[in-house]
Design goal:
Strand content: 35-45%
Helix content: 10-25%
CATH class: Mainly Beta
Distance between the termini: 40 Å
CATH architecture: Roll
Shape: globular
Mean pLDDT: 81
Low-confidence stretches: none
Structural class: mainly beta
CATH topology: Pnp Oxidase, Chain A
Order of helices and strands: EEEEEEH
């Protein structure tokens, strides 16, 4: 998959923790397809389900340059290159808390 085929391509800074639990910051490109699929290519290996923080690299004159929490929903290794293509979805904090509590199976705790 060539990330440059899509017209909606943005330079971003991605940070998070890799598979070795090492914190990283990497500059890459994010593509946003007409179907709403967001993808990045990273050199650092990450797991599906990892939390990544994506910050749009904008001109310094714009103040809305803060990172957005995203989840790596699909990781596809590239045989011809180092790294992988990661499909992202924006994280929703309340949904993450509900899912974590369900996985821990605390029946006495209710999450709105």
């Amino acid at each position: 998959m060539d990330l440059h085929d899509d017209q909606n391509c943005y330079v971003v800074e991605v940070s998070g923790w890799d598979v070795a639990e090492g914190f990283f910051v990497e500059r890459t490109e994010l593509t946003w397809s007409a179907e709403g699929i967001k993808e990045i290519r990273l050199q650092r290996p990450v797991r599906e389900g990892s939390m990544l923080f994506v910050r749009l690299m904008q001109p310094a004159t714009q103040n809305e340059n803060y990172p957005i929490a995203c989840e790596a929903v699909k990781v596809t290794k590239e045989a011809a290159r180092d790294g992988a293509i990661i499909q992202l979805t924006q994280s929703r904090p309340r949904a993450l808390i509900r899912r974590a509590l369900r996985e821990l199976k605390f029946p006495s705790i209710r999450v709105a």
